[in-house]
Write a structure and sequence with these properties.
The complex is a heterotrimer of chains A (313), B (515) and C (273).
Chain A lengths: L1 H28 L4 H9 L7 H10 L6 H13 L13 H36 L4 H14 L3 H15 L15 H28 L1 H9 L3 H31 L1 H6 L5 H10 L3 H29 L1 H7 L1
Helix pairs in contact in A: 1-13, 5-6, 5-8, 5-10, 5-12, 5-13, 6-8, 7-8, 8-10, 10-13, 12-13, 13-14
Chain B lengths: L5 H14 L20 E6 L13 H7 L7 E4 L4 E4 L2 E8 L2 E6 L13 H12 L15 E6 L2 E5 L7 H4 L28 E7 L3 E6 L12 E6 L3 H10 L4 E2 L4 H9 L3 E16 L9 H10 L2 H7 L5 E3 L22 H10 L8 E6 L5 H14 L4 E6 L1 H9 L5 E7 L8 H8 L13 H12 L3 H17 L3 E14 L2 E2 L16 E2 L3
Parallel strand pairs in B: 1-10, 1-11, 14-15, 14-16
Antiparallel strand pairs in B: 2-3, 4-5, 5-7, 6-7, 8-9, 9-10, 11-17, 12-16, 12-17, 13-17, 18-19
Chain C lengths: L1 H17 L1 H4 L31 H37 L1 H16 L2 H12 L3 H12 L1 H15 L2 H9 L3 H37 L11 H8 L8 H28 L2 H9 L3
Classes of the chains: A mainly alpha (313), B alpha+beta (515), C mainly alpha (273).
């Protein structure tokens, strides 16, 4: 257990350092002068003269050599200061936290919906294994993986927002703003969740202690409820955590299409505009959360079923 | 239009403006509606404030359109004049000095009085900014001083008739002294305008309330929310569904659905933005006048504006828009003439040895399509062209160094002040800082130098027209389309006057009826 | 039955796209500004786009870019993943540790952001898309290869071969790899579908082809502002991506199901893109 946690902490640190340094390199590997880009983002228009570029560059601390700048950022970060965004000159924390909150709620709603849909589907498919219902459910849910978000989202907007006016077409203003984006995000998890539930249940149905329970005289329904379903849920919990971690940064397309001011959108804008402090703050938060969540999931998983952990290690 | 004399053109333009005929104006269909003073209004703006409200940045535009920030003078596009705003009157007391008399009885939203001291303090802080504003920086203004309780003196390094224009730029907005106390500017409660900001959701929206003590009279709206939405289609959708009352800068693709939507009117006005194909005059084959003229004859500007812009932009006639008072009446939009183009090409001795590259900047989404249409036009006369979509910042070093063929970009002529002198100097004089075309002509430079000294507006405009004529004759660049500013307004919004540069949106008179 | 249908549909689509230069009714770049956003008709089976170009022709022509990038990326990630996975399973020790750590780190990084970064650095186009997809996409193969290799290695005949004196590379190539072939191929078909969707996503964001070249993702993005007036413009390219990905996924799921053990199925299906 201690080694497990120690290894995971090491992973966390490595991930954070690696990703923040990589982000740090962005303005130096992309063409164009980063200081001019920053100036242009504040004041649309023409060329700025060199003295201004110079002045801004030194005031932002961009004159120092790379390692020095990075270490300075790292030092500030360890004391909780993520610095100021180059473009808005407001603290990165003030932008990252609200964006994170928005993405967290979007992802939770999407994954929650996915669980609610996939549980009954997976259970039914497992119980009717091999039959027509099973084939139908399996094929339909499998086809969800093939559905691109950037196709589904505009179609949903076209039908439900523009033609039927049932939901807003974009933005994050009212409670109904979450529906279309969450539906878009939920499709692919539904696919994986359903097949995981189904597979877990099928395994459990075959297992010996189920035969034993049936032999003892428990009805089919009772068996299913008390023994099979809980076993079917185990792989689902890991998957849920993995998807949750993945969607934190992976909701970029949906957030861009629906103009949602979440984490994915923040990262996208920051990378595109070379707003390094913002991009670094965002990436570090996402990476740290992702590692933390998957660690927690693994931890829970190991406690719940030591047998399965071997295969998934 | 080109047959009338210059003066009639100006008058006609003004008249057309006032009647709302294709130029800026109010909306139809609002007669008979009564303003409800308890209404709040939602405005969708196309960009969020940056640089933490630093007035020398574009954040000043957001403060101005929200009805918070006001300046000493205001440029009235309809009348073509600089009008008093926070300053009552002004006078050039010596070649390098201008005195502005501050209006009496104006209070900042925190209760303090507007005095010459506070004006001078405000202007000086903008003057000393690290990234100075184009309109008001050390190269154009040497100092600002309060010489008595109600007079502010602005001193310039060289004689310039344009000082009142400079003080109409939103970057010279006046805030109370208390706004400058911290490390960054705090506009909340420190403006003079009809609306006072009360809260902000970072990068999303700004909420304002009515200023009950506004000097300009009764404010007809109870408050407003200005939303920052960068996606044009979203802005269009929000005004269509009623989530927003006013949406600024509607993209061309959304215009037709808005124009057919009930309860929404679309306002269009000429804006000083022209989509331009810059050619590198300093490099073959573009250093040949005949070649440049051939390219000009090959383009079908009418088809371009009807297709990619869906009529929301009109074919350009030279570097100026024909409704601008300094445009030459003889300027006309080039028509496509493929035979002539081919002949000019042959005469210029062009041989298609390598494909020429157009850089299409990605900041304007439609430019990829514009470049594609141009590519097709040029293929027609035998000039092979390839397209590179790039960020401007990525292309800039090569372009400034003269290492490119063509770049498709867009230019706001009145980007600093309501006079094209800045644009004409920076873009086309031999030492201009934004001379992407690498064009150099002594006659042109002399004209511009003379215009910079000319105080008489009529004379100056004549010189501008001449300068524009030189650029047109030399086919320095290909001016493609004059973009129009398109705003969409719901029909229950009253007294909305469109500003093509989106500096003035919410005013004391803007109102909304209950229905 | 379904997977047979899927194979047929896929074969038809791929054949059509491969034959695109001869099959297209109009040159994909031929503009007709007078006939923009035309609905489907006898001349233009899928209508025209916002510059009057035939949507069907652009669909066929654009499919080549999308499919080729996705296919190449699948091969590259498959080979790299296989190599790393098998080696770390066989060598164990520090290589294995390193692999697991790297894998965990890469899992935590948001794929789209890494891709954005790479394309921002390298400029848009074929190569940078390929690099972006490869860098973020090899881990599922490596995980699968490693798990399967471990599994196979624990079987008796491997130990026997080692004891007899067969060199390690021989063991890998002759005994281990054949057992991995079927599940890896199944995974490859699944990954191809996902990579195709990712190519579309990056193109949609403007990080793909240069105009006037078309590919499915950028066609979708270009048609979106006109969606209300001309919905077929977004239906066609999206449907193309969906159909190809669907066929490939269905085939892949069936293939891996038939080839692998139940445990492997769980492992394969537990990979998320």
């Amino acid at each position: 257990m201690i080694t497990f946690l120690a290894k995971r902490t090491a992973t966390l640190v490595a991930a954070v350092l690696l990703s923040s340094f990589a982000v740090f390199l962005i303005p130096y590997v992309t063409p164009g002068d980063p200081v001019r880009k920053i100036i242009r983002s504040r004041v649309a228009g023409d060329v700025v003269d060199d003295s201004t570029v110079h002045a801004l560059s030194s005031s932002l601390g961009l004159q120092d050599p790379l390692p020095v700048q990075y270490l300075r950022w790292l030092g500030d970060f360890l004391t909780g200061d993520m610095g100021l965004s180059h473009i808005s000159r407001t603290p990165v924390v003030d932008q990252v936290m609200p964006a994170l909150g928005i993405t967290l709620s979007l992802v939770l709603v999407a994954l929650g919906a996915a669980v609610v849909v996939s549980l009954p589907l997976g259970i039914v498919a497992a119980l009717k294994q091999g039959g027509k219902t099973d084939k139908l459910i399996t094929t339909v849910t499998q086809s969800f993986i093939a559905m691109p978000e950037y196709w589904l989202a505009p179609l949903l907007v076209l039908v439900f927002a523009l033609r039927l006016s049932m939901f807003p077409s974009a933005g994050w203003n009212t409670a109904s703003s979450v529906v279309l984006p969450a539906v878009t995000l939920a499709l692919r998890p539904i696919s994986f969740f359903t097949s995981a539930v189904r597979a877990g249940m099928i395994d459990a149905l075959d297992a010996e202690h189920i035969q034993a329970a049936r032999a003892r005289g428990l009805s089919r329904v009772q068996t299913v409820w008390r023994h099979v379903i809980p076993n079917g849920l185990v792989p689902l919990s890991t998957l849920f955590a993995v998807w949750f971690a993945g969607l934190l940064g992976g909701s970029v397309i949906v957030e861009v299409i629906f103009a949602i001011p979440g984490m994915g959108r923040l990262l996208y804008d920051a990378v595109v505009n070379s707003d390094i402090p913002l991009a670094q703050g965002g990436v570090v938060v996402v990476v740290a959360l992702a590692v933390a969540i998957t660690t927690l999931a693994d931890f829970v998983h190991r406690i719940l079923s030591p047998k399965v952990s071997g295969a998934l290690a | 239009m080109r047959k009338l004399s210059r003066f009639s053109v100006t008058g006609l333009a003004a008249l057309l403006t006032l009647t709302g005929c294709g130029l800026s104006g109010g909306q139809p269909g609002t007669e008979g509606k009564v303003a409800d003073p308890n209404q709040r209004i939602v405005v969708d703006n196309f960009r969020a404030p940056v640089a933490n409200w630093a007035l020398e940045s574009d954040a000043a535009y957001v403060l101005s359109l929200s009805g918070c920030l006001e300046t000493l003078t205001k440029y009235d596009a309809a009348q073509g004049k600089v009008m008093p705003f926070l300053a009552k009157e002004w006078k050039q007391v010596s070649p390098l000095e201008w005195d502005f008399t501050i209006r009496d009885g104006v209070k900042f939203q925190d209760g303090t009085e507007l005095t010459a001291e506070s004006v001078a303090a405000s202007l000086n802080s903008v003057l000393k900014a690290k990234v100075p504003a184009r309109a008001f920086g050390p190269s154009t203004v040497s100092s600002v001083q309060a010489i008595d309780a109600r007079t502010v003196r602005v001193t310039t390094p060289a004689e310039s008739p344009l000082v009142p224009f400079r003080l109409a730029s939103v970057n010279t907005g006046i805030l109370a002294p208390a706004a400058y106390q911290g490390a960054t500017v705090d506009p909340f409660g420190h403006c003079t305008g009809p609306f006072t900001p009360v809260s902000e959701k970072a990068k999303q929206s700004l909420t304002l309330d009515r200023n009950p003590d506004y000097w300009g009279g009764e404010v007809k709206l109870a408050g407003a929310e200005v939303r920052f939405i960068t996606n044009g289609a979203t802005r269009a959708a929000q005004v269509q569904t009623g989530e927003a009352d006013i949406s600024l800068s509607i993209p061309a693709a959304s215009l037709s659905s808005l124009q057919n939507a009930p309860g929404v009117s679309v306002l269009k006005a000429d804006s000083p933005r022209t989509a331009t194909l810059y050619m590198n005059n300093g490099r073959a084959p573009f250093n040949n006048l005949g070649f440049r003229k051939a390219l000009r004859s090959a383009l079908d500007l009418e088809a371009l504006s009807a297709s990619v812009y869906e009529g929301a932009a009109l074919p350009a006639a030279g570097p100026f828009a024909s409704s601008e008072p300094w445009a030459s009446p003889e300027a006309s939009s080039p028509k496509q003439n493929v035979e002539e183009a081919r002949k000019l090409l042959a005469d210029a001795g062009y041989s298609a040895d390598r494909p020429l590259e157009i850089i299409a900047i990605v900041e304007r989404a439609e430019f990829a399509d514009v470049a594609t249409v141009i590519q097709d036009n040029l293929k027609n006369i035998g000039v092979p062209v390839s397209i590179q979509a790039k960020e401007y910042a990525a292309a800039e070093p090569d372009v400034l160094a003269g290492n490119y063929d063509m770049i498709l970009s867009q230019r706001n002529r009145l980007i600093d002040i309501a006079d094209p002198i800045g644009f004409l100097t920076a873009d086309y004089t031999c030492k201009g800082t934004y001379n992407l075309s690498h064009f150099c002509d002594d006659g042109y430079d002399q004209l511009i130098a003379k215009a910079a000294q000319t105080a008489n507006t009529e004379e100056r405009y004549k010189l501008y027209a001449q300068a524009g004529g030189i650029l047109d004759d030399q086919a320095v660049n290909l001016w493609l389309v004059n973009e129009q500013a398109t705003d969409a307004v719901r029909s229950n919004v009253l007294s909305y006057v469109q500003d093509p540069l989106s500096r003035y949106v919410l005013t004391a008179d803007t109102a909304k009826s209950g229905s | 039955m379904i997977d047979r249908a899927a194979v047929v549909v896929l074969a038809l689509i791929v054949a059509a796209i491969a034959a695109a230069p001869w099959l297209v009714p109009f040159p994909p770049d031929a503009q007709n500004l007078a006939a923009r956003l035309a609905p489907p008709s006898g001349d233009h089976w899928l209508g025209t786009d916002h510059l009057g170009r035939d949507t069907l022709s652009r669909l066929l022509d654009g499919g080549r870019f999308s499919l080729v990038v996705a296919a190449l990326a699948t091969v590259l990630t498959g080979v790299i993943g296989l190599a790393i996975g098998v080696l770390s399973a066989r060598r164990k020790g520090w290589l294995d540790e390193f692999f697991t750590r790297t894998n965990d780190v890469l899992l935590a990084l948001p794929e789209m952001v890494v891709a954005l970064f790479i394309v921002a650095a390298m400029g848009t186009g074929f190569t940078s898309l390929l690099v972006a997809l490869t860098v973020t996409g090899w881990t599922p193969f490596a995980r699968l290869a490693r798990t399967l290799a471990y599994d196979v290695s624990s079987r008796g005949f491997i130990e026997a071969a080692r004891v007899v004196g067969c060199p390690p590379s021989f063991i890998i190539f002759r005994h281990i790899l054949p057992h991995l072939a079927a599940p890896m191929l199944g995974q490859a078909t699944l990954r191809f579908g996902q990579l195709l969707i990712s190519v579309g996503a990056l193109s949609y964001l403007g990080l793909g082809v240069q105009p006037p070249q078309s590919d499915w993702g950028s066609m979708l993005a270009a048609a979106q502002p006109y969606a209300e007036r001309a919905p077929w413009g977004i239906i066609a390219p999206g449907l193309a991506i969906f159909l190809v990905a669907l066929c490939v996924t269905l085939i892949g799921q069936r293939a891996s199901r038939r080839a692998a053990d139940p445990v492997d199925v769980l492992v394969v299906e537990g990979q998320h893109a």
